[in-house]
Amino acid sequence: MANYEEELLALFRTLHAHPELGFEEFETTKAVRQRLEQAGIELVETGLPTGVVCAIGHGEGRCIGLRADMDALPMSEEADLPYKSCVPGKMHACGHDFHTAAMLGAALLLKEREAELPGRALIVFQPAEELCEGARRVAETGVLDEPEWFFGIHSYPEFEAGTLGLRPGAVMASVDRFRVTLRGVGSHAASPHKGLDPIPVMAALIQSLQTIVSRSVNPFSPVLLSVTHAQAGTTWNIIPQEALIEGTVRTMDEQERAEVKERFYRQVEGVCAAWGAHAEIDWMDGSPAVINDPGLCALAESVAREMGFEVRQQEQTLGGEDFSEYLYRPVKRPGLFVRIGTGGGYAAHHPLFTVDPAALWPASQYIARLAEAAMKKQR
Ligand SMILES: [Zn+2]
Ligand SMILES: [Zn+2]
């Protein structure tokens, strides 16, 4: 087995210094493609301008999917690193540079073992995770049909390098988004009876929406509804025509997700009917919850322990990850999202977020070993 550590660290530092936002990962894509081609790895064309998909192994045996994401965030880096972002207003604050480098290392290791592999790996370097769109776009190209199981990785600042976070069941939430425009009738502030003030309708609606989770969801279920943006009016003596609220719904279960959406519509319609106002609802279904398969979780744990990683329980979060799309598109299939301890002390999306480079090479080796173990796993 060759040691790619120095090469991967150099790639990680280069990617970190030159962050690219979702669907603009042109240089990142070029770097990954070139290295895969140089190693003689088969590229799978998606037709998308960014992102790379490749395949290693043989047609016989099980095909498993592996996914890393590539995009950065629109924010300025504050950490004082020698390889700090050179692009003002752009930063790898979610570790996707680390994921790209770690997955490339895994691809190189799997390629070395290609003749001995009992199956095949389809590896996705995905664009635009932060836009919650990349996974769906890759799935729509039709290249994801083959894998029986899908594995995703993510850096995790809560755990030090050398530690992996695993947990069976739901680990991240579905991410739905709503916008409600309430239409009333404008008038002078002194003549409310001549108009239909949308502001008290908005206030009543916000209060009412808060009762969906507290009064109609099992208190043991993690469900969240946040109204995060409310807007109405322009000044002190005009009753406005319109009011607007925006927010998000997070759940860990598809049935609850559907029930919350239904109650949401009912409450908006009911409150508006009571006031005689009119509402327009824009509901945007985002990615589903990330549900870790218990059997794959046990496999990942045994591989981790064999390799000397410390294994800890991954925390559940109502944050989202479009990795879940791979568990539903184009078919429902089992998968696992593994957290790789990368230390650093600052949460993802923080301007001081950093990744401990010591986690990189072990991560590549772990992904390659896990992929091979998954190809061999008995059903
Ligand atoms: Zn992120
Ligand atoms: Zn991320």
Structural summary, described in words:
The protein has 379 residues and is α/β, with parallel strands linked by helices. It has two domains: 5-171 and 289-376, Aminopeptidase, CATH 3.40.630.10; 174-284, Alpha-Beta Plaits, CATH 3.30.70.360. It contains eight helices and 16 strands. The protein has helices spanning 5-17, 26-38, 96-112, 134-140, 198-216, 254-275, 294-306, 360-376; strands at 42-44, 52-57, 63-69, 120-126, 149-156, 163-166, 169-172, 174-183, 187-188, 224-232, 238-239, 242-251, 278-284, 290-292, 310-313, 335-341. The strands form four sheets. The chain has an eight-stranded mixed sheet, with helices on both faces. It has a four-stranded antiparallel sheet with strand order 10-12-8-13, with helices on one face. The chain has a two-stranded antiparallel sheet with strand order 7-14. Strand 3 (63-69), helix 3 (96-112) and strand 4 (120-126) form a beta-alpha-beta unit. Helix 1 packs antiparallel against helix 3 and helix 5 (198-216) runs antiparallel to helix 6 (254-275). It is elongated, with a radius of gyration of 24 Å. The chain starts with a helix and ends with a helix. The mean pLDDT is 97. Residues 94, 96, 129, 154 line the site of one zinc ion.
